[in-house]
Design a protein that fits this description.
alpha/beta; Rossmann fold; 12 helices; Serine Threonine Protein Phosphatase 5, Tetratricopeptide repeat; 8-stranded mixed beta sheet; binds S-adenosylmethionine
């Protein structure tokens, strides 16, 4: 793995995040199938949790689900762009916050304050020093019965040169399940499950899912270790097969903060809460239509276009025509833009 600074610039600048990282779930048939089949199946006993700390959320592929399983969620990532994106994406969730961190510590979390640490599909690239740093922090931040579920590399358990010479999944070569267990023990923590998995292949246990808790917590037990060579061939393939037959959950979009809601808006939200979505939609549309200055919105779209943002202009005009279908200038501008 490149040094942490190169890693930061890779995620900040080089990676094309236009699909928010959802593309990494394609082999499962989509994000929701990977969540339900692979992730919730494993962490179901640890949620809901009072306070969740997510390490390395990227653009929020798992945050989207975790936020509904806790009272508070704090997430840290080394990439500023990821944190900025998550802040925008989850702006309506007041119990969720995002922070840039240094890649090894969890300064944002108070001692013994975290009930579930979660990290998936990120620390697989992290070498031993990063894991050592985070495990030290787990010993500080985990609550009495807190649990950490982390996905990390297991490539360190293979002699260099005896495995996939190209390391196609770019796993950290100095980390293994056994090393993580040793680090945990050194911090007075306990690994209670370790599942080594063949990720993207069926012969090499390149990854590991580890569950860590405090010694003496309600989860404490002898470490249960399992090798899962079938992870990709069975589990991933099963999720993909299910996705071909059954639709994904409807994406749950979040309402915004409510303090500034005017009378019509507030009434519409009440209707939505009572389950009358169609009436809520009609009422809020009416309320927004009454407040909106269509001429200003049309001109905003024109200016967006002139400033080199045709997609922004298109979005504004589509919204304007939705709210004011009779607005001739907006309709003509929209048609011109679509035709261009
Ligand atoms: C492959 S993306 C995965 C993001 C997310 N977990 C997901 O599955 O969609 C890796 C993310 O990990 C972050 N990252 C890498 N190393 C990190 C570290 N040591 N500490 C915190 N974040 C890290 C990167 O900035 C990037 O956002």
């Amino acid at each position: 793995m490149p040094a942490l600074s190169a890693n930061v610039s890779m995620w900040n600048e080089a990676y094309d995040w236009s699909q928010q990282g959802d593309e990494w779930s394609d082999a499962w048939g989509g994000v929701s199938y990977q969540w339900w089949v692979t992730l919730l199946a494993r962490i179901q006993g640890y949620v809901p949790a009072g306070r969740i700390l997510e390490i390395a959320p990227g653009y929020g592929r798992w945050t989207h689900y975790l936020r509904d399983l806790c009272d508070e969620l704090v997430a840290v990532d080394i990439a500023e762009t990821a944190i900025a994106h998550c802040r925008t994406r989850f702006a309506g969730d007041e119990h969720v916050s995002f922070h840039v961190n240094d890649g090894t510590s969890l300064a944002i979390a108070a001692d013994r304050s975290i009930d579930l640490v979660f990290s998936f599909d990120s620390l697989v690239h992290a070498e031993h020093d990063v894991l050592a740093g985070y495990l030290k922090e787990f010993a500080r931040v985990l609550s009495e019965d807190g649990v950490a579920f982390i996905h990390h590399s297991n490539m360190g358990s293979y002699e260099p040169g005896t495995y996939d010479p190209h390391n196609i999944h770019w796993r950290a070569t100095t980390v293994s399940a056994a090393l993580v267990e040793r680090y945990a023990q050194a911090e007075g923590l306990r690994c209670v499950s370790q599942e080594t998995v063949a990720w993207g292949n069926d012969t090499l246990l390149n990854d590991c899912f580890t569950v860590i808790t405090r010694a003496g917590s309600r989860w404490d037990r002898e470490n249960q270790v399992a090798e899962n060579f079938n992870y990709s061939a069975h589990e991933m393939a099963t999720a993909k097969r299910i996705s071909a037959l059954y639709p994904p959950a409807r994406p749950s979009l979040a309402f915004g903060a409510r303090e500034r809601a005017g009378a019509g808006h507030a009434a519409a939200l009440k209707l939505a809460e009572s389950g009358d979505t169609d009436a809520a939609h009609a009422l809020l549309q009416e309320s927004v239509r009454a407040q909106l200055d269509p001429v200003a919105l049309n001109d905003l779209a024109v200016l967006a276009h002139q400033s080199g943002d045709p997609e922004g202009a298109l979005t504004l005009l589509e919204a304007l025509v939705l709210l004011h279908p009779q607005h001739a200038a907006a309709r003509e501008n929209l048609a011109a833009l679509r035709a261009s």
